[in-house]
Specification:
The chain is 84% helix and 0% strand. The radius of gyration is 14 Å and the shape is elongated. The chain is mostly helical.
Length: 61
């Protein structure tokens, strides 16, 4: 279970930065459901926006 979460996290972060290999992308699309990748993408986007808001708040105060 933990290795699957780590694999989804790793794949999503690589896709965020645009460095996903073609081999890993094909492997990701062979899995059953895209829902874990969508959920991880939403969570990572929220974390990114929240961290940027925190950083800007710290700089401006």
């Amino acid at each position: 279970m933990l290795s699957r979460i780590w694999q989804v996290f790793h794949s999503t972060v690589a896709a965020f930065f645009g460095v996903q290999t073609d081999e890993n992308r094909k492997k990701d699309f062979q899995t059953g459901s895209p829902l874990p990748y969508i959920a991880m993408g939403i969570v990572l986007a929220i974390v990114l926006v929240a961290s940027l808001m925190f950083l800007v708040g710290q700089v401006l105060s």
